[in-house]
Amino acid sequence: MSSLPAHSGAARGAAPPGEGAHRERARGVLAHASLGVLGLVAILAFWAAGVAVLARHNALAAQFGPLAALQTFPSLITDDRLFAHIGASLRRIGVGLAFAMAIGVPLGFLIGRVKALETALSPALQFLRMISPLSWMPIAVMSLGVGDPPVYFLLAFAAVWPIVMSTASGVQHIDARWVQLGESLAATRAEMLWHIYVPGIAAHVLTGVRLAIGVLWIVLVPAEMLGVSSGLGYLILDTRDRLAYSELMAVVLVIGALGFLLDHVARQLYRRFGAQR
């Protein structure tokens, strides 16, 4: 009887079964984040060292350093115009991605479903995919004028290819037993599409969207140099023309941070909707 209280006290003092696993996950997340921060610090250190070497021969180079950019960053953040430029760039990204998905998902689905169509279109699509979207800049301006339309065209052209290829791959990798099950249950085409194909290709489509966002963000800056008066690409030109090089580098940091956040959102969407399939 005397051992029972001691045992009960030990049980009361013991950690819940899931607490240890929770702590292990927390330590893993912390270690992962620490390594990421360390990598960013290393990049900043190399950046500062390179600028310091160049500044020995050219005093102007000091304005391109991380310290000058970080000093300019607070005033840039408090400027309402920056958020207007960010909003314009994000709007163009959204429109370009929407056009790319509206074209890429149905086309990729047809290519994945119809073997003859894949055979007929693959050479042409591979040829077009290898042309840099920026090569179309003069044609886009002559055809669509200046402003947002040519930017939308260039962004959609850049983003459509990973979506097409990922969607086609997803259709081709759907388990044939799912299709046979749907057909054996006399499912309609709409039911097959919604209950078989959409869940089956969701992960692949989201992978294509994530790749497309990365391409879009790279093409966005030069595309916004096509006569528009807003956007981060325009802001790069504006700071260059004003010789505000430290502000230019601060805008570069903003572009990198926003691109990182967009990729993070795409990854979270994949984990939420794609990894469950």
From TrEMBL:
SUPFAM superfamilies: MetI-like
Protein family (similarity comment): Belongs to the binding-protein-dependent transport system permease family.
Membrane topology per record: Multi-pass membrane protein
Major location category of this protein: membrane
Entry-linked PROSITE patterns: ABC_TM1 (PS50928)
Subcellular location field: Cell membrane
Protein name: NitT/TauT family transport system permease protein
Keywords (A to Z) from UniProt: Cell membrane, Membrane, Transmembrane, Transmembrane helix, Transport
Organism: Paraburkholderia unamae
Biased amino acid composition, Low complexity: 1-19
Chain spans, region Disordered: 1-21
Organism taxonomic ancestry: Bacteria, Pseudomonadati, Pseudomonadota, Betaproteobacteria, Burkholderiales
Transmembrane parts of this sequence: 29-55, 93-112, 124-145, 151-171, 192-223, 243-262
Positions of the ABC transmembrane type-1 domain: 86-266
Pfam families: BPD_transp_1
